[in-house]
Amino acid sequence: MNAPKRSGPLGTGFLILFALPFAGFGLFALYQGITALLSGEWVAAIALPFGGLFFAAGVAMIRSALRNTRSPEALAAARAAKAAQGAATPAPSQMPAMAAVGAYRTAAGAARSAREAYGSTLATAPLPRLDAPAGLVLAHSIALHGVPSGFGELFFALLWNGFVWPFFFLMLAVDSPFAALFALLFCGAGVYILVSTVRKILGRRRLPRVELSAEPAYLGDELRIHVDQGGPARITRYRVGVRCEEVVKYTVGTDTRTETHVVLDQPLYDDVGAQVRFGERWTHTLSLLLPAEAPASFAAEHNQVLWTVRVHAEIAGWPDYDEAFEFRALPRLSP
After folding, report:
1. Is residue 1 part of a domain?
2. Are residue 21 and residue 135 in the same domain, yes or no?
């Protein structure tokens, strides 16, 4: 697996430079608020909470940047801790096979599908908990993996603008042009964040519907995949593939690290795209023979084997997307 990424001197310096205006603006706003408070200008004293918020944000970013800078001794300790954990824990590629022999085993007889064969074991085995409702074309429809709704980002954007714009108008009211000009920089950033967030949320409405012929699917069997892209969208490139990843999480000191190893990355479709008009559907049905020797799906606190259908689209005039639709791939049970 690849080593966990950490910030180098250049990255740390960039983060600190990015955080300094926040801390400086916060100190300036605190000074303005305290001065106004002492002079009895109660309206202008509203700068105090704004200053405290920005100063705290700047200090927190600087602290986080400095914490990500590790000395050679700290890196050596991290490698030692990782080695010790690896000695005590089976390799992630071995764990699904062990589970397939042990916890996955069930007396299923001659059931026709993995869902029927594993039955109630799917709810208790170390597997991802997935809902796979009936599809319109194939047997099951699968959902996105780990994608936030975007409303948290929208709340942050609204909160940011709700703080910086009143402060900007306040500085204009108290005839402080320098502070108003400085605040205008943060207002511009707030507008950019808000517009980008709204575009991202609207762009997610253009995500495709992905269906599978089986969920869970048997390793060693053919899996059919149906991708349905709705309009309106002018797609300049469209790619579909299947990926299997081993994910390991471990703790070094107070930091939680995540390492990801791609076991399989099989492209299935790559085209220049098309113009999909409003109300139209652009559909593709693809197939893949899942390797029988590949690791089976697995989910535990610190280890995971993740199978996904990856759909990447470059859409003119809208944010591109590269999304993962999760499914489970399991070994075929012996009679």
Report:
1. no
2. no
The residue range of the domain holding 59 is 9-69
Largest CA distance in the chain: 86
| Global confidence as pTM | 0.61
Identify the domain boundary among 171, 189, 205.
205
Give the span between the Cα atoms of 205 and 200, in whole angstroms.
9
What CATH number does residue 296 fall under? 2.60.40.640
Distance (Å, rounded) from C-alpha 228 to C-alpha 285? 9
Does any domain span residue 79?
A: no
> What are the Cα distances from residue 210, in Å, to 105, 241, 263, 324?
29, 12, 22, 10
61 shares its domain with 159: no
Sort residue 290 into left (φ over 0), alpha (ψ -120 to 50) or beta.
Answer: beta
Distance CA 275, CA 262 (A): 33
Phi then psi for residue 292, to 5 deg, are -65, -30
Going from the C-alpha of 234 to that of each of 119, 269, 281, 319, the distances in angstroms are: 43, 18, 12, 12
Residue ranges in the chain assigned as alpha helix (H): 9-38, 47-67, 72-88, 95-101, 114-118, 121-124, 151-173, 177-203
The count of domains in the chain is 3
Q: Answer yes or no: is 269 within a domain.
A: yes
Does 231 share its domain with 112? yes
Unique residue bearing structure tokens 């797609």: 235
Distance CA 163, CA 48 (A): 12
Decide which of 198 and 287 is more confident: 287
Asked if residue 163 and residue 184 are part of one domain, the reply reads yes
| CA pseudo-torsion sign 18, 20, 21, 25 | positive
Q: Look at 19-33, 64-78, 94-108 and tell me which has the smallest mean pLDDT.
A: 94-108
The residues, ordered by sequence, that sit 6+ positions from 159 with a Cβ below 8 Å of its Cβ are none
Q: Are residues 111 and 219 in the same domain?
A: yes
Quick: pLDDT tens for 183-229.
Answer: 788 888 888 888 888 877 776 667 888 999 999 999 999 999 999 98
Whose CA is closest to 149, among 230, 207, 83, 64?
A: 207
Q: Residue 296 to residues 136, 228, 274: CA-CA distances in angstroms?
A: 27, 27, 35
